[in-house]
Amino acid sequence: MSEITNNKADTFRRQKHKEEMKKQLISFALMIVFTLLAFTIVATNSLEKMFAIPLLLIMALVQVAFQFYFFMHLKEKGHEMPAVLMYGGVWAALLTLAALGVITWW
Length: 106
What we know:
This protein is an all-alpha fold.
């Protein structure tokens, strides 16, 4: 009876690991595509700055989200406190940049 339970648990772990690796590979491929696309946009100067800069920023934010959730495993249980600290750091950085922008333009 114990062997059957261990075998099922082992099969479940293998399947879960396989799914996780698949998600990581897909997110890695998407990050490579976003990086190549960003380099192409900047190198060819094919888009106007008013469109290129927000597009590059959006692609950068998507890459950061992929890295947080898939490579730093922030979506898993037990990682709530590191996630809160990282989100707090991002929020503090955004507030600092906004304050510097307001001070500069004032």
